[in-house]
From TrEMBL:
It comes from the Bacteria. This is Heme oxygenase. It holds the Pfam family Heme_oxygenase. Coiled coil: none annotated. GO terms for biological process: heme oxidation. It comes from Flavobacterium album. InterPro entries: Haem_Oase-like, Haem_Oase-like_multi-hlx. One of its GO terms (molecular function) is heme oxygenase (decyclizing) activity.
């Protein structure tokens, strides 16, 4: 891997997606889980919406990335959300496809952009976990396993993902596709949250 090209690509990816990322974080439903006064219903509402995203990604994006992300199957998150919703006494029901619903052809680069957003949420989850634990009393073993992410390995999981992402980009010169996929995903999640968040 050529270190001189990887760092600028990752910097460019972060900068090019910064506005979409911020817009999503500033939505009331997103901000609710970082609020010290978060309620059980706000927390459950966020989890249900995020479950749509993770289930869609695992069903429709994971198959496109086999062999590219070495530890792909260890990155499944939907079962954690299901466990948390069960603790909250919430029925799961069917899920929508907020990310892939309108996509016909998905290139590998675009799929990696989608994965960049979903994996990145694990980093923020560690901060949210502390708030949910303090405000509602849930922890990694009981009611907040999704936000616990990969536990103490969250940082290394993220670095490993960025390494695989950077290597694929360097070999295939598809930075614009990855950036497009990431911005598309931030915006798709944003639209899903705005349309379906409890009022």
């Amino acid at each position: 891997m050529n270190g001189t090209t990887t760092v600028p690509f990752l910097d460019n990816l972060r900068q090019a997606t910064a506005k979409s990322h911020t817009d999503l974080e500033e939505l009331p439903i997103s901000a609710s889980v970082t609020d010290t006064n978060v309620t059980n219903s706000e927390y459950a509402g966020y989890l249900k919406l995020m479950r749509d995203v993770t289930a869609d990604t695992e069903e429709n994006i994971f198959p496109l990335l086999e062999g590219i992300i070495p530890d792909l199957m260890q990155r499944s998150k939907t079962h954690h959300i299901d466990a948390d919703l069960a603790v909250l006494g919430i029925e799961i029901g069917t899920h929508s496809r907020p990310v892939t619903r309108n996509l016909k052809e998905i290139s590998t680069g675009f799929a990696l952009g989608i994965m960049y957003v979903v994996e990145g949420s694990s980093l923020g989850g560690r901060v949210i976990l502390k708030n949910i634990s303090a405000a509602l009393g849930y922890d990694a073993e009981n009611g907040a396993s999704y936000f616990a992410g990969y536990g103490g390995q969250t940082g290394s999981y993220w670095k490993n993902f960025l390494s695989a992402l950077s290597q694929y980009e360097a070999e295939n010169q598809c930075a614009s596709e990855i950036i497009e996929g990431a911005n598309f995903t931030f915006d798709a999640i944003n639209a899903h949250f705005r349309s379906n968040a409890p009022q």
